[in-house]
Amino acid sequence: MGSSTSSTSSLAVVTGASSGIGLELARQFAEHGYTVIMAAEDGRLASAAAEIRGSGAAVTPVQVDLASSDGVEELFGVIRDHPLPVESLALNAGVGVGGPFVETPWASDRDLLELNVVSVVHLAKLVIPRMVERGAGRVLMTASVQSAMPGPYYATYAASKAFLLSFAESIRYELRDTGVSVTALMPGPTDTDFFRRAGMEDTRAGQGPKDDPAEVAQDGFEALMAGDDHVVAGSLKNKVQVVGSKVMGDPTKAAVAARLTEPGSGDA
């Protein structure tokens, strides 16, 4: 395993890095001396990278659509050609789709699955074997507190995060003797663009209190450096939610979650 304190001889890759938790993760790596590859699909990436670069960090922005296989391959091409090997990989890119499943467009759900699930497995498949070959590396996968329970009214999002938690824990076990660790980051509602982009601003969750993405990213970074298997990031409420979910049946968990995510619930 690499050392917990890094220098510009260590490379970190962060997806979904143009805003929110991803941007703050990139900032964490930069502040700890990493060279950073920041990937995202939107036009804010250039200014986000310039902001991180302003702190003195070496930053390479890569604007790609990771919901496409070509986008993943393009990012991997930059990783493969970089003079430094990847020491830390933060698989953070993701979106939500709010609303009743029978009403959400298939194209939106398909794009969610391609980004939240397929691109994560694809990029992990490309990068992690190189870490194993070196005998060192760290992987952070952004799951969610929602990983631990059903998620009515954003069903494909909740299912995608449950997949990521299971995937992270599974390959963590497989890699236990390789020098490569895998950590699942489990944030709760966070002050990012998520609810707006998911069309969930009128829900109780969308209008309720949210955690600071900088604090969530710091929790994730520290857990990654410690080699922890997972971290429930942010407020105590998130930790209570995950613990409480272990004693409730799935129908009860679904009903509890629905009160927060049902369209219009924020107006009640």
In short, what is this structure?
This protein is 47% helix and 14% strand. It is an alpha/beta fold and 268 residues long. It has a single domain (11-267), classed as 3-Layer(aba) Sandwich (Rossmann fold).
Structural write-up:
With 268 residues, this protein is α/β, with parallel strands linked by helices. The chain has a single domain, classed as Rossmann fold, CATH 3.40.50.720. It has 10 helices and 7 strands. The protein has helices at residues 20-31, 45-53, 69-81, 106-134, 155-174, 194-197, 204-207, 213-226, 236-245, 250-261, and strands at residues 11-15, 35-40, 59-63, 86-91, 137-142, 180-186, 230-232. It has a 7-stranded parallel beta sheet, sandwiched between helices. It is globular, with a radius of gyration of 18 Å. The N and C termini lie far apart (51 Å).
List key phrases describing it.
alpha/beta, 268 residues, disordered N terminus, Rossmann fold
Give the helix/strand layout.
Elements: E1 11-15, H1 20-31, E2 35-40, H2 45-53, E3 59-63, H3 69-81, E4 86-91, H4 106-134, E5 137-142, H5 155-174, E6 180-186, H6 194-197, H7 204-207, H8 213-226, E7 230-232, H9 236-245, H10 250-261
Parallel strand pairs: 1-2, 1-4, 2-3, 4-5, 5-6, 6-7
User: Can you summarize the main beta sheet?
Assistant: 7 strands, parallel
- CATH 2nd-level architecture: 3-Layer(aba) Sandwich
- Provide the CATH superfamily: NAD(P)-binding Rossmann-like Domain
Order of helices and strands: EHEHEHEHEHEHHHEHH
Extended strand count: 7
Pairing-aware structural class of the strands and helices?
alpha/beta
- Count of discrete domains: 1
Name the overall outline.
Answer: globular
